[in-house]
Amino acid sequence: MIERILIDGKEIILVGTAHVSSESVKLVEETILAERPEVVGVELDDQRFAQLRQGEGWREQNVMDLLSKGQAYLFLLNLMLANMQRKIGESLGVKPGSEMLKAVEIAEKEGLKIALLDRNVKITLKRAFNKTSLGEKLKIGFGIIVGLFAGGGDEAQKITKEKVEEMQQKDIMTELIKELSKEAPSIKQVLVDERDFYIAQKILECDCKKIVAVVGAGHVDGIKGHLHNGIQSVAELEKAPEKKNWILEILKYGIPALFVAFLVWGFYNNGIQGGVEVFLSWFLITAIFSAIGAIIARAHPLSILTAFVAAPFTTLHPALASGWFAALAEAKFRKPKVKDFEGLNKLESFGDFQRNNVTHLLIVAAFTNIGSTIGVIIALPYLLKMFF
Predict the structure, then answer these.
(1) Cβ–Cβ contacts within 10 Å for residue 59, how many?
(2) Given a cut of 70, is residue 10 above it in pLDDT?
(3) Which helix (H) or strand (E) element contains residue 49?
(4) pLDDT for the residue numbered 178
(5) Contact at 8 Å (CB) between 181 and 117?
(6) Radius of gyration (C-alpha) of the chain in whole angstroms
């Protein structure tokens, strides 16, 4: 897909590609050599450009950091998407991002300037996370769980070259973006709409008379629309402001407050026995479900015990999570090694995620936290029934 636009004497050639398409690689090469632009722009930022050239920087990831910052779910989702794209590429004999690398390779060989047009991926992901509602976050979490457990035969997972090339077509990509908008409008706004605007501005800012910009086919229409609006500031889009989710804030402090209220009410109504009943009910329900989460994650028995003991207390502390403690205990038995980091881009099934020590720790943390959350959801109504 090629779109040619002339704005204020600048010729802009948008090359829409599929990221795992041999035809896209060929199209990029032919276009750059035929057009001989002053600048070749690619839909990459510094970080992804370095990763494409040197390989994924998985070794730089601090697993405990991911756990303490609550980024386990996001990291798992990122891994699943990266491995899905890699699998498609392998089935077609094309490495994901090959068309971007080809554009850079030709530009360097021909002495053309290279422009990285996309926003820093960390800022994009952080903005996406901050903008998503609680409901959208739950959908993402559910998607991760389904993605990890989902199976299917070879026929179900087989991807033909024709299907991938079909995704280059304008109408198919438009429909996919519409579907994304229905499921997670906030994520679509950040991953698609904001980036369309950002890339368009970076193209307009390039000091040249002719530029070939290599972008994903799904961004072409959006970029075209913004190009005609002239240069505008992207300063706000390069920030990742923290967003307070008031529902989560209320839950953080509301749950401990409710528990204390139930505890006081228990003592007031039935003395020590009433208080003990409240405490034991809370302890057992949250502990059991947290332990069940750790069991589903196939954690070590001592990690399961840690989840059991930690949950009743971490569910009452806004800054703690039982999954962190379970994962820390699990790290004593399944300490990540260099080979685990090197194998992060070769995971295809739930079994692969479990065998890899890095993702295993993240799964233990995620499932334990989910279990303790379910425990809280069950415990609160149960305590309410004890008195009414």
Answers:
(1) 12
(2) yes
(3) helix 46-54
(4) 57
(5) no
(6) 25
Cα gap 253→235, rounded to integer Å: 35
Pairing of strands 2-7, 210-216: unpaired
Query: For strand 113-116 and strand 39-42, is the pairing parallel, antiparallel, or unpaired?
Result: parallel
Cα gap 57→229, rounded to integer Å: 37
Supply 35's token pair. Answer: 């057009």
Domain locations in the chain as residue ranges: 2-238, 246-387
Backbone φ and ψ for 251, nearest 5 degrees, come out as -65, -40
Name residue, tokens 């070769």: 346
Both tokens assigned to 295: 């069991």
Closest to 143 (Cα-Cα) out of 78, 64, 98, 217: 78
The token duo for 256 is 């401990």
Query: Worst-scoring range by mean pLDDT, 79-88, 144-153, 170-179, 249-258?
Result: 170-179
Q: Give, as one character, the DSSP assignment of residue 20.
A: T
Copy the structure tokens of residue 250: 């209320």
Distance CA 43, CA 199 (A): 8
Higher pLDDT, 229 or 134: 229
Q: Which pLDDT belongs to residue 155?
A: 43
For 229, the token pair is: 């609006």
Q: What is the Cα–Cα distance from 284 to 306, expressed in whole angstroms?
A: 14
Alpha carbons 386 and 388: distance in angstroms, whole number: 6
Output the furthest CA–CA distance in the chain (Å, rounded): 86
- The one-character DSSP state at 232 is -
Of 54-68, 73-87, 193-207, which one has max mean pLDDT?
193-207
Exposed, middle or buried by CB within 10 Å (0-12, 13-18, 19+), for 46? exposed
Burial class (CB in 10 A: 0-12, 13-18, 19+), 82: middle
Residue 128 · residue 186 · CB < 8 Å = yes
Contact 91, 154 (CB under 8 A): no
DSSP string, 61-130: --HHHHHHTT-HHHHHHHHHHHHHHHHHHHHHT--TTHHHHHHHHHHHHHT-EEEE-SPPHHHHHHHHHH
**388 vs 373: CA distance, rounded Å:** 23
Mean pLDDT value of segment 170-191? 62
- Number of residues that make up the chain: 388
What percent of the chain has pLDDT above 90?
33
For residue 215, give Cα distances in angstroms to 1, 325, 363: 10, 43, 34
